[in-house]
Write a structure and sequence with these properties.
heterodimer; A: alpha+beta; 5-stranded antiparallel beta sheet; 17 strands; B: alpha+beta; 7-stranded antiparallel beta sheet; 37% helix; globular
């Protein structure tokens, strides 16, 4: 295991590579993407620590290998938080270790608050990374507004370590709310649930989460006490058109409830292949209906469908058996023209044999390939992680 | 400011190239007569102008593609243009280039309130996107001050912000997808009405690429339900540093206003003389803090803000209680550029600093200006540290523009020294191109230019912008 303790050591290590490496942070999200074919692993765990945190400027800068928990604790001590509510993949993937902030960025991991506060990439305001040639590069900075040159920050987010190894990341953070409430509806079918969530999200009440799982439809508001009380009441009135609404109040209750949505709790411990489909919310019920054998729940007001496919559903379970495509053909068939699908959990054999990420249209794939060739001309960083 | 020598071969084939463009465009979509192209010689950075080879004003993506194919085949550089309101010279032509303006492509193509998206042609103005949806209670959040005139195409090219992006983000946070014509004329669709397209975030790097990667002809934009209401409070201080501290205290306390605007004494006086908004003339600095929500929610937030400001001993706190008062509080702020322009020529700077460095930045700006014997007025988005010092000078006095530019360069450099950046929302263009070395090292710039290499290998799209000419020389030479 290569374990650089500074960006300079990281640059030296990458420059000196003679064979491909697998890049990892805490290793908890290693099951995302295709399996990397590399003899050696490089960990960013040695690039750890919050190097700058200015609560009054809503900015935090940390080494890529900093444990997410450490970042979140530093923020919590000042009554702030990461806006994008990153998922903890350990429960779903059965992985161990400590998730790092760099790992969350590399996979652009965004939770239920995506609908209100944007994705991980939207909060990310600066990066330092070492490209495949071993050059240390910076882009962006530590200020929220910055249009100085190209936004490589966005390009690096969600590139799964294939364009460069992150050494440092900078974020815009947000105040943590003093109050929160969840409006709960029960017993809605998928179509009614999406309509109810849409009603909430098109209201002026600044909804910060809208999910439908395990027979419950959830809508969250957060903020100051008086404001949350007001908006929760108004939402309850509005959602009353769909059934009886229970209001669950309190920051802790909301945290527990929404952590289940964030971490895909309904699928934890259950076997089978797990997919995410991104789509227009209004298309979600039809996509889901085309996969009658799958288990499903919804986040982002229906803009994200989580799917779990049992044996025999859509051609496989994801355990790598004969002819097993993890349900790729069925899921992509259902989403065709309406959304795109990512395989989140399946055996390495399945992930190696299907497109884990939705294949891009040919001209876009050419651009992506061109970027990869420029940033990592030797193909030493996480080869195969995103495409074969 | 230096521009590369135009390609003499292209210039000498002007008639031939115009004829080829004429063959793929309707008659009224191509102009080359000097009297007609005059309006395209410059953008809002009027200090620089250059007559282009020709100007194409297509009405469809297919026509844009046809123009790009001709220019590609003929080796003609292309300068994409929105409404020409950019302050950094991003749409400044070169003599060998075709200006490709999208201003006639301004249709709304699709509106979907349930999915909270709108698809528009990018020649549409920023404000008219909101105009298309506000009767139904929605709006498009980014609000650059030129929003009445500026096009979505330019907003995407410059990743434009505005006063309200403290809460809602800038263009990149509100852009879901684009249709883009490449330098070879190929039409690409990137992203779309859903969230987070697969693969590398090409959309993220196209947004803010200043027309160097392609010509964006359509955009999927996120629209939001309008809040129930909004109301500002004006808070005046007898010191700039205290005003700066108030900004940081408000943010630290967990209040997230939609806007925190800062005005210093010179700009207060200028706007007062210009529109008579009734601002406190004795104040050294004032803030306009706006919050949103229902009347009770607004009250709750304003109470908190007042409680935070009170210990800092403001000279005045003026809370709006209704629409007329809100308009009065915003009146001077909105007239700030016009007011400054009425008394002097000015350069509008656009540096960004960490908000904690606000007092130091203002002090150092003041010192720079005094040393150059100029005047400055400061008005800016304080919540996100985006400074807009307006450097006043007399364009008719020999040497004054150069002096103002030199002071401007020093101010932007000090923004970088304080941990900030050269431009928060206007873009680099030609204006700050040669300052890029101050913020980025050679490898940093090379990594950015590598992206352009992929999209535009021959460097024909707006090539003499963004990157210092010496840094891009080899690539531009092909």
């Amino acid at each position: 295991m290569i374990r650089p303790g500074s960006e300079a050591e990281l640059a030296e290590a990458v420059a000196g590579l003679s064979a491909p490496i697998e890049v990892r942070g805490g290793g908890t999200r290693g099951g995302l993407g295709r399996p990397v074919q590399a003899a050696e692993t490089l960990t960013t765990e040695g690039l750890s620590g919050v190097s700058l945190y200015e609560p009054g400027a809503l900015t935090l800068v940390a080494g890529a290998g900093t444990p997410l928990a450490e970042v979140e604790a530093a923020l919590a001590a000042e009554g702030q938080r990461l806006p994008f509510e990153p998922m903890d993949h350990r429960g779903l993937l059965g992985s161990e270790g400590e998730p790092t902030i760099g790992g969350a960025v590399s996979c652009n991991v965004s939770g239920p608050r995506r609908v209100q506060a944007g994705a991980c990439r939207d909060s990310l305001i600066g990066v330092r990374f070492v490209d495949g040639r071993g050059r240390a590069i910076k882009n962006g900075g530590r200020v929220m507004k910055n249009v100085t040159g190209y936004d490589l920050v966005k390009l690096l987010a969600g590139s799964y370590g294939t364009l460069g190894v992150l050494s440092e990341v900078a974020f815009k953070v947000l105040p943590a709310p003093e109050a929160a409430a969840t409006a709960v509806l029960r017993g809605l079918d998928d179509a009614a649930a999406v309509t109810a969530m849409t009603s909430a999200l098109t209201s002026p009440f600044d909804v910060s989460g809208a999910a439908h799982l395990e027979g419950e439809t959830l809508v969250r508001v957060e903020g100051f006490e008086g404001s949350v009380a007001y908006r929760a009441e108004r939402l309850a009135e509005r959602l009353g058109a769909f059934g009886e609404v229970e209001l669950e109040r309190g920051v802790e209750a909301a945290a527990a409830r929404w952590a289940r949505v964030r971490d895909a709790a309904p699928f934890q411990g259950a076997p089978g292949a797990v997919w995410r489909v991104h789509c227009r919310p209004s298309d979600a019920p039809a996509i889901r209906a085309a996969l009658p054998g799958a288990e499903a729940f919804y986040d982002w007001g229906g803009g994200l469908i989580w799917l779990r496919l049992d044996e025999g559903v859509g051609g496989g379970v994801g355990d790598g058996g004969v002819g097993d495509d993890g349900g790729a053909a069925a899921v992509r068939g259902a989403a065709a023209g309406r959304g795109h699908a990512t395989l989140v959990r399946a055996s390495a054999a399945v992930r190696a044999s299907v497109d884990v990420f939705e294949p891009e249209a040919a001209p876009l794939a050419r651009l992506s390939e061109g970027l990869r060739e420029r940033f990592d001309p030797r193909g030493v960083l996480n080869p195969g992680r995103m495409r074969a | 400011m230096r521009m590369p020598e135009p390609d003499a071969g292209v210039v000498s084939r002007r008639d031939e190239i115009v004829a080829k463009l004429g063959a793929v465009l309707p008659e009224d979509a191509l102009i080359w007569d000097e009297r007609e192209t005059k309006a395209y010689d410059t953008d809002a950075l009027t200090a620089y102008a250059c007559r282009p080879l020709a100007v194409a004003l297509p009405r469809t993506t297919e026509e844009v593609s046809a123009v790009m194919r001709v220019c590609h085949a003929e080796g003609v550089p292309v300068i994409p243009r929105g409404s020409g309101t950019g302050l950094a010279g991003g749409a400044l032509p070169t003599a060998d280039a075709v200006v490709l303006g999208v201003s006639r492509m301004n249709a709304v193509l699709e509106t979907d309130y349930d999915d909270r998206v709108i698809r528009v042609q990018t020649g549409r103005t920023n404000l008219s996107v909101t105009g298309a949806v506000e009767q139904d209670g929605f709006f498009y959040a980014p609000d650059p001050s030129s929003q009445l005139a500026c096009a979505i195409a330019g907003n995407i090219a410059m990743n434009s912000g505005g006063a309200h992006c403290l809460k809602y983000g800038v263009t990149t946070n509100n852009l879901l997808g684009v249709k883009m014509v490449t330098v070879t004329g190929e039409v690409l669709e990137i992203g779309g009405p859903g969230m987070d397209a697969p693969g590398y975030d090409l959309l993220g790097v196209i947004c803010g690429s200043e027309g160097q990667l392609g010509v964006v002809t359509e955009a999927w934009l996120r629209i939001l339900p309008k809040p129930e209401g909004a109301r500002p409070i004006l808070i005046a201080f007898d010191s700039a540093a205290t005003a700066g501290r108030c900004v940081s205290d408000v943010i630290k306390a967990g209040v997230l206003p939609v806007a925190i605007e800062y005005m210093d004494k010179p700009i207060i006086h200028l706007t007062e003389a210009f529109v008579g908004a009734g601002y406190p003339m004795e104040a050294e600095a004032m803030l306009i803090v706006e919050v949103e929500g229902s009347p009770a929610e607004i009250d709750e937030q304003l109470e908190k803000i007042k409680a935070i400001a009170a210990p800092l001993q403001p000279t005045e706190m003026r809370e709006s209680s209704g629409e007329a008062q809100s308009a009065a509080i915003w009146k001077g702020r909105k007239a700030a550029f016009g007011a400054t322009g009425s008394v002097a020529d000015y350069l509008c700077m656009d540096g960004t600093i960490p908000t904690s460095a606000l007092p130091e930045a203002l002090e150092r700006i003041d010192a720079v200006i005094k040393r150059h014997g100029l005047r400055v007025a400061n008005v800016f988005h304080a919540g996100d540290g985006n400074l807009h010092p307006l450097i006043m000078f007399n364009a008719n006095a020999p040497g004054e523009l150069e002096k103002a530019e030199a002071a401007g360069a020093e101010i932007l450099t000090l923004c970088v020294e304080l941990g900030g950046c050269l431009t928060g929302e206007h873009g680099v263009g030609v204006e700050k191109r040669d300052l890029m070395h101050r913020q980025y090292g050679a490898d940093d710039l090379d990594a950015q230019m590598a992206v352009k290499d992929v999209f535009d290998p021959a460097w024909r799209l707006n090539a003499a912008k963004v990157f210092p000419l010496d840094a891009s020389a080899e690539r531009r030479a092909g």
